[in-house]
Amino acid sequence: MIDFHNKGVFKLKPHAEYAEKVEALLCEGEEIVAAYKSMRGGVIFTTKRVIAVNVQGLTGSKKDFTSLPYRKIDAFSIETSGTFDLDSELTIFSSALGTVRFEFTGSTPLTDISRLIARHAC
Question: Which among 16, 66, 89, 121 could disulfide-bond with 52, CB atoms 3.0 to 4.6 Å apart, if both were Cys?
């Protein structure tokens, strides 16, 4: 499982092609909403869950996929970018995984992602 507390893993930027890594894992009727990539891993938001990909090993052929269904999220918060701090953050609280924090570069539309999560939490 991914070490969510290692911030270096999740300095994410938009990367639509990264979604291809999880297409084979999708459930019937599940669609990809957004994909973000870090140096070696990434995060994909679907209509049903968050899928984190951790690329392991020297060659990068070994991958760890961690799935967090939105219905298992107890609470979440977003921190938007500011004038000097250009990064934004999404923090998810789940009794299954604990606290999960994703840091995004630039002007990532976290309001769209939070709306997606909230739709399943309400």
Answer: 66
